[in-house]
Each structure stands twice: as structure tokens, then as C-alpha cells.
Amino acid sequence: MTTKLSFKDINITFKKHPVTNDLVVSRDASAIKQALTNLLLTNKGERLFNPRYGSSIRSYLFEPLDYGTAAQIQANIVYTINKFEPRVDLESVVVNPNYDNNGFEVEMVYTIDGIDAPPTAVDFFLERTR
């Protein structure tokens, strides 16, 4: 007999449910996606009691916009997810510089352990904000 794992987390928007007035909850795939986003956008040292948690991908945004920096960002993403998010198996991470928009396009494909679902693709754009 197989058991299906279920994941849930508080939604990062902190909106309240219209009926129960509780915080809205993210479940399964959306909870994992939110956890990955939080993990990658958390700088190392931001969590007081876990200063090693997070990634340093933001520090690469002021480096040269080239494939060398893209490879460093890719390696950092793979390392961070493998170390801090045991619920997912990364299938691929592709980082490409976007010279027109001065940033990096990131595409991740992963599967969620314990859930019988096709691989999930997440695309996002990293750019300087200052």
C-alpha cells in the first residue's frame, strides 16, 4: 500500500480566507514552489538561528553579465536546493544571461518526492534592484 504525501504551508501573501478568516494555505505543488522561491531569495545570514540557510544568488547580480556568472548562479542554485530542500529532485537548472534586460533567465525543472505528478517547471528572471 502506497501513501501519498501531502505538503502545506502558509501562503506568503498572508491573505485571509473569506469564510474561515484563517490565513490562506498553499498545498502540495504550490507549497513546494513557494518554499523553493523563499529558499533562493533568502540571503545567507538572514535567518538568525540558521545563518547558513539560503543562497547567495543575489550577490552574483553585480558581477559581469556573462555565461561564467550564469554557471556560478546555476551551481549555487543546485547546491542550495540539494542541501536545504529534500522534498524535491532537481532534473535541470538552466541559467542564461539576458543582455537586453540586464539580468539572468533561470529555468528549473524538478519532481516532488512522494507525489505522483509530472515534473514541474519554474521560470524566473534575476535582475538588479538597486
Any key phrases for this structure?
Nuclear Transport Factor 2, Chain: A, single chain, 5 strands, 130 residues, 3-stranded antiparallel beta sheet, 27% strand, two-stranded antiparallel ribbon
Q: What topology does this entry show?
A:
Layout: E1 8-10, E2 25-27, H1 28-41, H2 67-84, E3 88-98, E4 103-112, E5 120-127
Antiparallel strand pairs: 1-2, 3-4, 4-5
CATH topology: Nuclear Transport Factor 2, Chain: A
* Tally of individual helices: 2
- Count of spatially separate domains: 1
In terms of DSSP E residues, the strand content is: 25-35%
Low-confidence region ranges = none
The CATH level-2 architecture is identified as Roll
Query: Biggest sheet, strands in spatial order?
Result: 3-4-5
Distance between the termini: 53 Å
- Give the overall shape: globular
Over the alpha carbons, how many angstroms does the gyration radius reach?
16 Å
How many extended strands?
A: 5
Output the CATH class name.
Alpha Beta
The helix/strand class is alpha+beta
Secondary-structure element series: EEHHEEE
User: Can you summarize the main beta sheet?
Assistant: 3 strands, antiparallel
pLDDT averaged over residues? 87
Percent of residues in helices: 10-25%
